[in-house]
Amino acid sequence: MKKALIGFSLIIISGLIWYLFIKSYDYTIRFTTDTNAGTINQSLKLWDQTLDTIESIKQNESLYRLTQKVRFVDSIHRYQWKINPLTDSTSRVVVNIKDVQHSLINKVKVPFSDTNFEKRSRKTVFDFMENLKDHIGKFKISIIGEAEMPSKYVAYIPIKATQFQKAGGMMKNDSYISQTLLNTNAEFDGPPMIEITKWNRKNDSLEYNFCYPVIRSDQLPMGTEIQYKRIFGKKALKAIYNGNYITSDRAWYALINYANTNGIEIEPKPIEIFFSNPHSGLGELNWKAEIYLPIKEDLNE
């Protein structure tokens, strides 16, 4: 009986030591949302820019883990975001929160009362949830599945930008490339498109070619910034994206989720084909883009 009591006491003491001094967070919030992990990741990074943060939000080893430090009047809170995909279009989010300067006292109070720390944490996470809900209501992604990516000869300009700046890079170069081609009576062969050549998913940087498909001929302008190449058709996963082209990369993540779920090896170099003119007056949900994610070729075939 005495040994059992001692053992039980040791378990209690060990648990208290872990809870008060070793556990790396003070409070946990969980929620489920109807979108993919990549969309949550990008939304967190944009939302982070609206907060009084100590430093920009950091992505850890993968897009599923992020850490941020938010400054409030009397304290600094560390938020550790863990995103767990449930299906192609749903995710579970776990947020572990710590008051960096008042962690011990919060751990003592949290089990017994609804503290200001808990209320502030819930309000902050709820603010993000509302922000995310608003964002995912502004676009639509339809997964088509395996398809053949079209082959096109293109006039293009290479661009380096962040994912969020992608559409800005297109707009900056659109008039130049289209007018230069029109001035020489070049014949267009489809809507504008981009070809991603490098995608760093840790820092969200891109290298891509902004392209106009053209008919190859002697009419094409030479001696300008415009370059030419053929984008060859290949097997790919395809999605239809409806929404503002600034956030069309949300479809990239949806296709990656689809590939992971179905055991398909892909090349993370998306192709986007834009069928709508942003200046046409159409509502953004009526803008259309085809998104292709190339499937890795089986060299043994």
From TrEMBL:
Keyword flag Transmembrane helix: yes
Residue ranges of the TM segments: 6-22
Keywords: Membrane, Transmembrane, Transmembrane helix
Domain GyrI-like small molecule binding: 190-296
Keyword set includes Disulfide bond: no
Annotated InterPro entries: GyrI-like, Reg_factor_effector_dom_sf
Protein name: GyrI-like domain-containing protein
